[in-house]
Design a protein that fits this description.
Elements (H helix, E strand, L loop, with lengths): L3 E2 L4 E2 L6 E6 L8 E6 L3 E6 L5 E6 L4 E11 L2 E10 L1 E8 L5 E6 L7 E7 L6 E8 L3 E8 H5 L6 E2 L2 E4 L5 E6 L6 E6 L2 E6 L5 E6 L6 E8 L2 E6 L4 E5 L28 E4 L12 E7 L5 E7 L4 E6 L6 H6 L5 E4 H7 L23 E7 L4 E6 L4 E5 H10 L13 E3 L9 E2 L14 E2 L1
Parallel strand pairs: 10-14
Antiparallel strand pairs: 1-2, 3-4, 4-5, 5-6, 7-8, 8-9, 9-10, 11-12, 12-13, 13-15, 16-17, 17-18, 18-19, 20-21, 21-22, 22-23, 24-25, 25-26, 26-27, 28-29, 29-30, 30-31, 32-33
Length: 439
Amino acid sequence: VELEVNPRALSFGHTASITCLSKACASSDKQYIVSASESGEMCLWDVNDGRCIEFTKLACTHTGIQFYQFSVGNQREGRLLCYGHYPEILVVDATSLEVLYSLVSKISPDWISSMSIIRSHRTQEDTVVALSVTGILKVWIVTSEVSGMQDTEPIFEEESKPIYCQNCQSISFCAFTQRSLLVVCSKYWRVFDAGDYSLLCSGPSENGQAWTGGDFVSADKVIIWTENGQSYIHKLPTSCLPASDSFRNDVGKAVENLIPPVQHSLLDRTDKELLICPPVTRFFYGGREYFHKLLIQGDSSGRLNIWNISDTPNKQEGEEGLEMTTSISLQEAFDKLNPCPAGIIDQLSVIPNSKEPLKVTASVYIPEHGRLVCGREDGSIIIVPATQTAIVQLLQGEHMLRRGWPPHRTLRGHRNKVTCLLYPHQVSARYDQRYLISG
């Protein structure tokens, strides 16, 4: 997230790596997201124009944020439930980023690894279910009266139960039955009864892969995805279904006996390119004209994959896997553009007898000096004034005649392409401002 300055207001940005993101508004006319960094910073962003409209810094690191909305009379209030490297859940106002109160553990307080909000349509009470890093399930009851309060005593948990789930990745509540809870850990997934949190069934990881999340596709099916982008749809045994006569028949038996039969279909990426980090996968259920069940996956190469999940898959889909509905990447979108979008230093990267400019292989922006540093394929490094160069390349035409180009410097020392750049003073003020490091 970059620093942006406009004439009327200073918009803050993050100074450390981003740890989590969440939506921060549910209305159609306002589109806000909130981000948090490992240094405790939180920013509220207006999606429409990219401005940071609120900024705060806490003495703790968030690893997860969930948006929670409730009604007070005719008005709808928004809250952000934050958890991370601290032993409670902070409830933050979604517009001012002010900490209002906290959900605290009286028994065995520890960091929270994952959390879910169970909305109740029958009562005015909602339930926050969380799992600590030590495998203890925590339950808090949140009412509209509590949500409206501020600067109150901390709210303690209603229930604390060890369920022995280590390295939890996600918790999901079944919207179809209003009775089941899916807990996904790295090496296994488990379904619990949301009434008393008894174990109903369990399943191991596929081929030794690590699970990274999951959700309910229907009352009797769950979808679990892995860190390499594969997803599996599992059919639950009848003992997990509240409408079945055999519901809860297996409660109390050994976990090994609760593994359901292997009835699953596979959803896999068609492209097998190497990624710098695991893809992000989410299950989406909803729609306007009719309901959609979509699995949406984005990865570090800029690719977006979508699968439309049918309630009645045919036999071929079950054996061969579900066919992808949509797949598009940023690179494909750029390749279709005519004329091709200009790079910021293309004019300085002309290669004789070649249509393509010399590729930029590493870059770093130095805000203190307003300079952009670009390392290239041939080992050279170009330093340009960032704003002036962008204006000339993207907004004016004089540079095409090789006139009006801002001053630049070329550093030569590498014989092969530059793969990394570092401006040490940007990391710590103790380093000399004159030094740039390249590799």
